[in-house]
Every structure is written in C-alpha cells, then in structure tokens.
Amino acid sequence: MTAQGLPMVVPSEDLPPRVRIHEVGARDGLQNEQRTVPTEVKAEFIRRLAAAGLSTIEATSFVHPKWVPQLADAEELFPIVSELPVALPVLVPNERGLDRALALGVRRIAVFASATESFARANLNRTVDEALSMFEPVVRRAKDHKVHVRGYLSMCFGDPWEGPVPIHQVVRVSKALMDMGCDELSLGDTIGVATPGHVLDLLSELNEERVPTSAIGVHFHDTYGQALANTLAALQHGVTTVDASAGGLGGCPYAKSATGNLATEDLVWMLQGLGIDTGVDLERLTATSVWMAAHLDRPSPSRTVRALSHKE
Amino acid sequence: MTAQGLPMVVPSEDLPPRVRIHEVGARDGLQNEQRTVPTEVKAEFIRRLAAAGLSTIEATSFVHPKWVPQLADAEELFPIVSELPVALPVLVPNERGLDRALALGVRRIAVFASATESFARANLNRTVDEALSMFEPVVRRAKDHKVHVRGYLSMCFGDPWEGPVPIHQVVRVSKALMDMGCDELSLGDTIGVATPGHVLDLLSELNEERVPTSAIGVHFHDTYGQALANTLAALQHGVTTVDASAGGLGGCPYAKSATGNLATEDLVWMLQGLGIDTGVDLERLTATSVWMAAHLDRPSPSRTVRALSHKE
C-alpha cells in the first residue's frame, strides 16, 4: 500500500481510547443484498473479518427463512465458524429462534425492536408493545442461560412513514428493552436522516433516564452521508460501541438508496487517524471487502475501500 | 418531497449560528469533470445555484486554456452571470490572469498555492516559494483594486507523493499567503485523508501563529468518506466558511477515486439538522444537481442527492 494507505495519527481531546466495532456485514449486510451467497463463502467472510481483527462479528439470523431467505442457512453456518476466537452474536426474533440458537451453543443473541409503530407493523406485523411482549420471554430465557443480549432499536431518528421520531418515544422503548434485561442497546438510524445534534440529544435523554452510555451502541446509515459525523458526535459523548458493515454491505430496503450501513473501513480510517484503538488491520479488512464485492458482483460503496483498492 | 425531505432540526451547543458555503461546483467541480459543458449550461448552472440560495459561487478560472480546457470560456461566461446578486470569485494564477479578470470587472479572485513541493511542482511547475513569489504581485495589484483575495492551499493534510504533511509546513505557507494580503484562506485536503484531530491541530496551530479562525475556510474531499466529520470538527473550532461542490461534482485527478469534493447537499443536510443557517433551499439545490448530472451524463456521487432524488 502507498504512503496514503493509512491516515496520519493525530489524537483529539476527550475521545475514548478504544472503540469496539460491532461488525454487522455478515448478517445485516448480506441479509439486505440481492444476491444470496453460499454458506462456505459466508463462513470464509467471517473468518477473514476475524483475521482482520474484528472482535464482534454478527454471524447470522434465526428469523424464519420465509422472511430472510438470504440467511436460511443459519444452522449450517454457525457451527462452521463457532470456534473462531471472537464474539459471534446472532439475531433471534422469538422463542422458536432462541431454541434453534441455544441448540447450537450460541452465547450472544440480539432482538430487534422498533421505535415507531409503522416500522413495527411493517417489519414484525405487530405493535411496538406487542413486539416487546414477544421479546420478553426470549430475553428472560437467554439470561437464564447466561447468554448476552443486545437490543436493536430501529428508526430512532426518522421513519419513512412517520417522519421525525420524537425522542421520548425512543427513550421509552429503550428503557423497556433495558428493563427486560438487555445487556446493551444498538440505536439505529435506519434511514440515515440523523444529524449530530439529534444524536447528542437522544444520548443525553437516555442518560437522564438512567440508561448509561456504556450500554449504548450506535448504528448509523450513510444514506445522506451523515454516518461518520454522527459517529464523531457519539464518540464525543463517550460512546464506545459502534456498528458498521464491512465494505458498506447492505443497502437499506426502506430508504430506496444505494447506500445503507456505515462502512467499517470508513469508520476505521477515522478512528485510526484519531489514535483510537480498534484492533483492526485496515489493509486486511479492505482486501476482505474487495473479495466479498467480487462474490456479490457489485463494487463496494465504501469510499475508503474504493480509494484504497484503486491504489493497489 | 416526502416527510424525510429535510432532517429534524436539533441544534448542538457551541456551533456557529450561520455558515457561509463557498460553492465550488462551477469551477473546481467542472474543471475536474471529463465532459466539457457549453457556456450557456454553465451560466444556467450558476443562475440555479444562486436561486437555490448560495451566496458565494466560484464561477470560473483564468488559468491558461491549455491547462484547463474545460474552463477556456471564462471570458464568455463571466459577463453572462456577473449581474447576479451573489459573490462570484474566479481563480487567477498569475498577472496575466489577473489582467483578464480585472478587464471583466471581477471583484473577487483566488490564487492557489501548495503546501508541498511535490504538488507545487506537479500543478504549477514551480517550487512552493517560486509560486508564492508569482502570487505576490497578483495579490498586491488585486488589493490596489480593492478586489477580495482568497488563498487556496492544497495538500494541507496529505500528499500523494510525500504522504502526511507536517503541520508546520502548512502553517508557514498559510502565513505567507496572509502576510501577502490574502483576505481569507481555504485549507484543502486535496486527497481526502484528513481526520478530525488532524484538522483541529492545524486550526489551533494557525491560531497560535495569529491566523484567526474567521479568515479560515475548510475544503474537504470525501475520498475516504471523512469530509463531513472533518467539517463538524472545524465548526466546533469556530470555522464559519466551508467549501463544497453541488452534487459532489469533480473527482480528484490525483486520488484516482470516484469521489472528490464534499457535496454541498450532504453539507446542507447536516447544517440544516444542526439548525445552522446557510440560506440554501435544499430541494432547489438538489434539483439543480440532478439537472447538471444529466448534462454530465453521470449520476451525482452525493448521497443526499441520491436519496432525495430516489424519493421523487
């Protein structure tokens, strides 16, 4: 790689020394790609992500295959990768999904709630509170098995049907997930409309309601190009868990745009420049995304992947 | 436009109430596009940018046509747009260019220096100091005519040949431009490698050397997806002049990547969400970029333009 293969390191004040990247490319990314990839390619993707230094790699989903055919091979995939020395959370929508996950020895699960009624209806065919009721026994039983639980919360900033989402609404569902026993939250800007002041307001309101920053991860989408600026604001607030997708995999089906998840490479470029430790080797990660882009037969939307791979 | 046509407004503390966008699409953008557009299309582009609320629109360049054939029509273009009620700076490389500009009644010019020897050689075929010597009479004579002078400084963070650029080197050339009589500086991250801590360090060092923040504009490229995060850091430092290019026009020929200038729409989305006044109507601006993309026969790389135009 050239002289510009890495940014110059200039730390900034008051930022955390270390950030944990929650890599969602293999699950959230591939679930939203048109092309379904073979199980062995998924396993190799996860292996390469682990080899690039990612320590938390969301592996797959135990949603019914009818809803997410791209990840219908969860039972085949998980055992292939389960011995990797990284955390491998999986998505679990209900008790049936939990049973399937527990049978495979899964140690971390995630449930996915919505901050808005419209998206709860569209995604889960339930009201917000009906969905929470569905998750309650899932979380309780997971905790009984000492399984770590993440609570995803979608549409925390804007909703394609409802427009801007009131912060108190997000806080209410966040508290319900924490009270239920979730170990951490992931606040999703599912359609990518958030801006930094909005992010800071939500984080402050959550703190006031005794949801600690240490339990909060942020999940930004780059639909309007705002993901990294929002991430910077969240880091300044003290957030140390950031979701990202290798190569920017996964458009958002609800935003009708080419770009969805924040690309892990764009995030790592910024964190590396800020002297924030992530454990990630950017060169290996970029090579992994280029390799996966070839399998998906479309170029990575990550700007860093494009810039670095043009140089090689 | 839908409920998501504008972000929810949530101001953040300690940010400036108003930002002046220095729109560079018509000059820096079109100069770096492969396709040359007819003079009347350029004029209409500038008219539409003005109608969208942009108050400073860099119009063209008086560089010799041999070097920038895309803007060889400067003499024809400028008189067509000169009556618009906006500031219309033009690029001027030397005394000959200044003569041409003054003959047309230009009221604002910009000179372009380099922070690195490699880029000064590549772009101007001179050393850094030889280029400064060339600009000295240009700036002096412009000031004699009460013409406002902007000093562009390229490669302020990284250089494709030299790698990371030492901050003291950038400060030295910045001071030389200010001492020469420039009214403002534009600090360019020409290859897009900067991260927020690096930006803040450079701004602080400039302040220590008595270059006030009020005289500093920032010019970020989105090659690695960092432009908006860097802009947020600069705003937090107090910067109120931000360069951007409508629709993200203009790749950077030295970075070999698809993306160059920060897109004005992505910037406006963030500023609008932060409650920072820019005077820009995002819907009109987006429509202008969609219109220009059709003339250039390539889609806008701006994420906000893509997201908003997909909805329409």
TrEMBL record, chains A, B:
Keywords annotated in UniProt: Lyase, Metal-binding
Annotated Pyruvate carboxyltransferase domain residues: 19-286
Keyword Metal-binding: yes
BP term (GO), one: L-leucine catabolic process
Organism domain of life: Bacteria
SUPFAM superfamilies: Aldolase
PROSITE patterns on file: PYR_CT
One example GO MF annotation: hydroxymethylglutaryl-CoA lyase activity
UniProt keyword annotation of Hydrolase present: no
UniProt cross-references to InterPro entries, sorted A to Z: Aldolase_TIM, HMGL, PYR_CT
Top EC class, one word: lyase
EC number: 4.1.3.4
Similarity section: Belongs to the HMG-CoA lyase family.
PANTHER family assigned: HYDROXYMETHYLGLUTARYL-COA LYASE
Name recorded for this polypeptide: Hydroxymethylglutaryl-CoA lyase
